[in-house]
Amino acid sequence: MSDQDVVNADDTSIIAEWWQSLESLPFDEVFRIAIVIGIAVLLHFVLRRTIRSFVKRTVDRAPQKQQRNRGGLAPGDKEVVEQLRERTAQRAQAFGTLLRSAAAIAIWSIATLTILSIIGINVTPILASAGVAGVVIGFGAQTLVADYLAGISIIFEDQLGVGDVVDTGQVLGVVEEVALRYTRIRDFYGTVWYIRNGQMQYVANQSQGWTYALLDIPVAVTTDLNVLRDVVNRAGAELFADQRHQPDLLEAPFFGGVEALAGDAVTVRVMGRIRPPNQYATVRTIRQAMKIALDNAGIRVPQQIIQIDEVPRSE
Fold first, then answer.
1. C-alpha Rg value of the chain to the nearest Å
2. Strand locations in the chain, DSSP E?
3. How many CB atoms lie within 10 A of CB 216?
4. In contact, 183 and 195? CB cutoff 8 Å
5. Domains (range + CATH), the chain
6. Whole-angstrom Cα distance, residue 61 to residue 53?
């Protein structure tokens, strides 16, 4: 007998033993296993469709929801609304993916344990081991779990996103990555910060839809405020009409009123809504335009008088 015949004989015996083991299974057990698998497949399909419908409904309702939640948006701010809609869509897609993965793991884990129980395998030790392992992991990875839960909240609630300018209390900079465990931010000195999501107690986001440009300009207390208002509003209108700056300005910067009085100076505020993410560059542009307009109008910023006390000399 050749080696090939021996191999074929072994394969045949293995197949025969496997078939006999299948035949030894009671019909009701096979039927119950089929029912469990069918229910798992059906439940998985229904949950996937439900989650997909939830994501689509969330994305479709995003513009109206953003208009309600952000009362400062004007009806004509279509670009801002579209940006907010895209952020909502990204957030909903990420959360939908997370839900689908969690649903698949839960459904098929329960189905597997049920099938093992049907074919006579005691799953109690497996569940006990999983429970002990969960307790050990829970105590040993509390901060890790907190970071992941915080990351899920950050993504779902749209607290920040890639490209946003944020202040977390620890760093002020631009978000480069939002992961479930950490957030990567590059500050304005170029340093990259990795901040655990569980450590961020609050987030000041300067890039969600729009922000204000606020400039406090001190002028002489004798300045005619009516003339100053006209100069500021005219400079703001000219800046807003410039095609180069329209992508960054939502409205013309305008005279906001008197902010403070101190000594020989009166501080007035110039304000206006601007688009992120270039708000700092836009503020510098507005400041430069106001400086030129004030100079042309003959309005001067009062000089700061610094008094230096002499140190008395000893006799």
1. 33
2. 165-167, 172-178, 182-187, 192-196, 204-205, 211-220, 254-262, 265-274
3. 12
4. yes
5. 8-140 (1.10.287), 158-205 (2.30.30.60), 211-296 (3.30.70.100)
6. 12
Q: How many CB atoms are closer than 10 A to CB 208? A: 20
* Alpha carbons 228 and 256: distance in angstroms, whole number: 11
**pLDDT, tens digit only, all 315 positions of the chain:** 554 454 445 555 665 565 555 555 555 677 777 888 888 888 888 888 888 887 777 666 655 555 554 444 454 455 556 666 666 666 677 677 777 877 888 888 888 878 877 777 776 776 666 666 666 666 656 777 788 788 877 877 778 877 788 888 888 888 888 877 888 999 888 899 999 888 888 888 877 777 888 888 888 888 888 999 999 999 999 988 888 887 788 888 999 888 888 777 888 899 988 887 778 888 889 999 999 998 888 887 776 543 334 444 444
**Start-to-end Cα distance in the chain:** 125
Number of residues written out for the chain? 315
Q: List Cβ neighbours of 271 (8 Å cut-off, separation of 6 or more).
A: 212, 213, 214, 215, 253, 254, 256
Between CA 76 and CA 300 the distance in angstroms is 37
Between CA 257 and CA 250 the distance in angstroms is 20
- Tell me the residue type at 47: L
Describe the crossing of helices 279-296 and 225-241 by its angle, rounded to 10 degrees: 130
